[in-house]
Amino acid sequence: MSDTDIVIIGGGPAGLFAAFYGGMRNASVTLIESLPQLGGQLAALYPEKYIYDIAGFPKVTAKELAERLDEQMRHFPVNVRLNERVLQVNKLAERQFEVVTDRAVHHARAVIITGGIGMFEPRRLEAKNSEAYEENGLHYTVGELRRFEGRKVLISGGGDSAVDWALMLEPIAESVTLVHRRDKFRAHEHSVQKLLESTVLMKTPWEVLGLTGEKHLERALLRNVVTGETEEIAVDDVVVSHGFISAPGPIADWGLEMSGGSIVVDSRMETSIPGIFAAGDITSYPGKLKLIAVGFGEAPTAVNNAKVYIDPSAKLSPGHSSHMQR
In terms of domains, do 77 and 219 share one? Predict the structure, then answer.
């Protein structure tokens, strides 16, 4: 059992920055993350994927960003709890919350939820024999890029992740083929332009119809979705990037106002339950943008308002960090 000023639920970018900022406000913080490492879904699924829209970083991998945020957070004695899943949050009284996990019960004076997209799983490839090759040539996450060195890689998808992986694997793999069932990619324009200038073989509008191979994946059967024409190509690996199916998980049962699987917050990042705040992709409000950069702004807003909730005599705005002492 722990007793702390603020319990932060979720160890992604917004949660890590919130934990750091809690330390800046002299609040004791417990950070609870269900995954075995910090960084959230981004670091778990795409550790070597480059991110281009973080202020101050021309480009940074998800893994490096998580490491830098962790380093920043460690300026303060944050109680980090990994591999721990929050099951229930109960408000016992004003400034008294009980956070029940699968391993312990924590007591806090305020709660900040930074749960990202909630519980998630990848959209599976709907192709013949696909299940037989999962973890044996068929991948829904990439992890270390070097595992694809010198291999024939097919990527299925047309969004940012698919295009980014194609560009990152191009100099490492023997060949990269990008298959998308539509004529146009849904990725950022800059990434698509780089793709057009690359050696990646683009197959549009095609889809993966089936996978074959005896002891391991050897071939992929493709189909043109317009003409019905089929083609078989040699592959060593297939990376599927069709997005994820997400759900708020147990959060939906905590009595919070929800909208489309997200938590409704006001301008203070406070939820429908006073004393429970939220930040990052889990939140919903008019004009909401689901960007890491936006979460970095929402996190200190949530922390500062949580500080005032805990101590009504505290200042909402502590001033710039350059004016603060640690």
Answer: no
What is the domain range of residue 49? 2-120+244-323
Please list the ranges in the chain whose pLDDT falls under 70.
1-2, 45-46, 117-121, 143, 246-248, 320-326
Average pLDDT over all residues of the chain: 91
Domain check: are 115 and 248 in the same one?
A: yes
What is d(CA 68, CA 169) in angstroms, rounded to the nearest whole number? 24
Instruction: Give the dihedral of Cα atoms 261, 263, 267, 270; nearest 10 deg.
Output: 180
Domain CATH for 159: 3.50.50.60
Query: How far, in Å, are 19, 28, 31, 89, 92 from residue 13 at the CA level?
Result: 10, 19, 12, 22, 29
Residues 13 and 29 reside in one and the same domain:
yes
Q: Indicate the pTM of the whole model.
A: 0.70
Measure Cα distances from 1 to 85, 98, 99, 189, 199 in Å. Answer: 14, 10, 10, 49, 55
